[in-house]
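Section 5.1 Outputs to date
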Amino acid sequence: MEPLNCTPSTRELHDTMDEAISTAGSSVRSRRPGNRTSLRAPLRRFTANVVGILAAILIPVCLVGCTEEVKPVQKLVEDLGSEEKSDRYKASKELSKMGAESSKLGSQAAIATEALAKTLADNDRDVRYYSAKALAKLGPNAVKAVDALAAALADADPDIRYYVVKALDNLESDAAPAVAALTTALGDENEQVRYRAAKALGNIGPEAREAVPALKQVLKDDSSDTVREAATAAMKRISRFKKG
């Protein structure tokens, strides 16, 4: 369903305001010059007209009447499995908007996560992008997608890899199964991916010990101060945390 276009165009606003000004101007010109008292009434009417016009235009926009109809989560999940690329695209995009508001997903967050984990490997770039973005917004709720996220770190698109590594970072210690993939991501060409990978390894804690040699190499080779700082912090967190 297409969104309702209830926001007035600039041309419509100008025409409406011109009409109000013209009406007030005609009232003012009908009064004798120099009589300030005689100007008060038309000016008050002009002000009331402007306020009324703006209220009529802006109140519907500020309320909920101009939003696109949102499909139920179950329907979006079904659309992720559609053979039609457009269905998968729209569903993944809508879920990426809902992910940050867990109340919209409710008890179906786990179902959405499983479906999004599958579309991380979709043959369409945009479907993969919005699937990764949705999982990044789900935070800890994306834990069931950890293996799919680890595999998606090899995606050819840097924007997708960014949201994938962000999703893993948000999982903290639950991202432990992705340590090997995150370690590889320390050498990514994208600075933000490298930064998030180092940060994610630090959040995993002692189970990321195998990444320490690679983190040390980052300190020697990486040209980014931000990435090197994240690697230093990660090594401290890995060595500081103790199981149990």
